[in-house]
Specification:
The protein is mostly helical. It is 63% helix and 0% strand.
Length: 201
Amino acid sequence: MAHLDTCPLVHCRLVLKAATTSRPSTAMNLMSQVLKVLSRSENKRLFGKELEGSMPPQPVLTMIDHLMIHGCEVEGIMRKSPKQATVRLLKTQLDNGQVPDFHQFNAHVTASLLKEYLRSIPGQLLLSGNYHLWIEVCEEFNEARKMHLCKNLLKLLPQCHTVLLKSILRLLRKIASNEYITKMSINSLGVCIAPSLLENP
């Protein structure tokens, strides 16, 4: 039965089927078995979970590494949408604890998956609770003060958020440096990625 851990819904169905043919005394164990299966599934889930600890999840770093190598000279990267069926398939695999071989897919798929992951982080990567403070930074005309305010807000980010943000910015900088190929300027990238980093709560 160990191999069923990767298919919690199948496991649940087997548990329910067994319960219908078992004596009533076994029914009291049913709920605990189902909850254990669902708990294992929840622990494997990647999307929609808070960032904890000092490092982002390894699959997310793998996505970024893949884009650093294969996505920084791709026209329209971070803007063009791939087939959503493929994105949904990979998302399901990641939520089941599997790490796909991203080399089998084009960079647009990985970029779309990365943006979807960022959107799924509870509270967003830049902390949507500070949304209005970020808006104040954007509206500040004095460059020195703007930099000061920005640094203060960045200090409020948990360590894991900071590490992931640095990786994202490093990727975006490399994409923008190849603007003549990617057709993606800093402004274009900002338009495409900002909604995944911060939203009005």
